[in-house]
Amino acid sequence: MHFNFKNYLLKVTNASACTEIEIIQSLWSGYGKISRYQLVGSSLRTVVVKNISLNQSSKHPRGWNTSNSHNRKVKSYEVETYWYEQWSQDSTTSCPIPKFLGSFSEGQNQWIILEDLNANFPLRKHTPNFSEMRVCLKWLANFHMTFLGRNPTGLWEIGTYWNLETRPDELQEMKHQELKSKAHLIDDLLNQCKFQTIVHGDAKLANFCFSENGKQVAAVDFQYVGGGCGMKDVAYFFSYCLSGSELEIYGKELLDFYFSELQKAFEASSSKIDFKALEEEWRGMYPVACTDFTRFLLGWMPTHQKINDYNLKMVNSVLSNL
Question: Which residues partner with 48 through β-bridges?
Fold first, then answer.
C-alpha cells in the first residue's frame, strides 16, 4: 500500500491499522481500481477506496485510446472528487449516496475514501424486475428535484459521458449522415431547455446499490455528474434495463411513474417552479434524449444491442421534426 496514502487513510478514519481485503472492480480502461479496506480501531469497520491512476491507458475495450478519451477520463475523476468534496452533502436521504470521508493525491495517483454502502445497501442487480426499476427511477426523480436549477459549478457543465462536445471522435466515425448533420441541433435542444438540473450522467443499473428488501437504493460513480435535462438519465437508464420490445410495452408506464415520483418530490420541496411546465417540457425532451444517446452509440459501437427498433423510431421521429 502507498505509504503516504495509508497514513492519510488512518488519520481520516481514526484507525490504528488498515488492510485491503477485496478489489471490488477495476476502473474502466485500466485507470485504477475500487477496493474495500478493513479498519482496526476505528468506528468504521470497512471503507471503500477508489484508487485512480492518471497515466494514459492503452486498455480501452473498444479501442478508443485517443487523447480525447484520456483527457475526458482525467477530467471525470477531477469532477468526481469535486462532487464528493463540495456537492455530495446536499444529496438527501431520498437519494442516498456514499458519505465522503476524504481524498488524497500524490503525483499521478488519486484516492477517494467513501462510506462502505454494503451495511445498508448490500445487493447488486443484473436483471431487475419492474419493482426494482421503479426504485431506481424514484431515486433519479428525487435527485433531479433536489438539484433542480442548480448551476453545476466545478462539475461537468453538460453532464453524461456521451455528451456531444466530449465525443468528437465518435461523431466523426458515425455513418448515419442525417443524424450526424443534426447532432448539434439535438444537443442544443437538450442544453437549452428551460428546466435544467444536475444529472448523474451514468445512471446504469450497475451504479445502483439495493437494500436487502429491494425497496431502497443508493447510487455510486459520479464521474460524469453535471448540468442537464433529467431525461438524459431516464432514457439512458431505460436503455440499460429494457430491450426495444420491452420499451414499446412498458416505456410509457415507467416514464409516467418517474413523473409521479418527480411530482411527489416537488410537493415535498419548497420549490416555486411551475411543475406542469416542467413535466411538459421534459416529456417532450424524452425522445430527444433517446436520440442523443443513440447518436453516441452509432459512432462508438454501431453494432451495439441498445441500437434497437424502439430507439431508431425515436431517432426518426426527432429528425423528422427538426
Answer: 36, 114
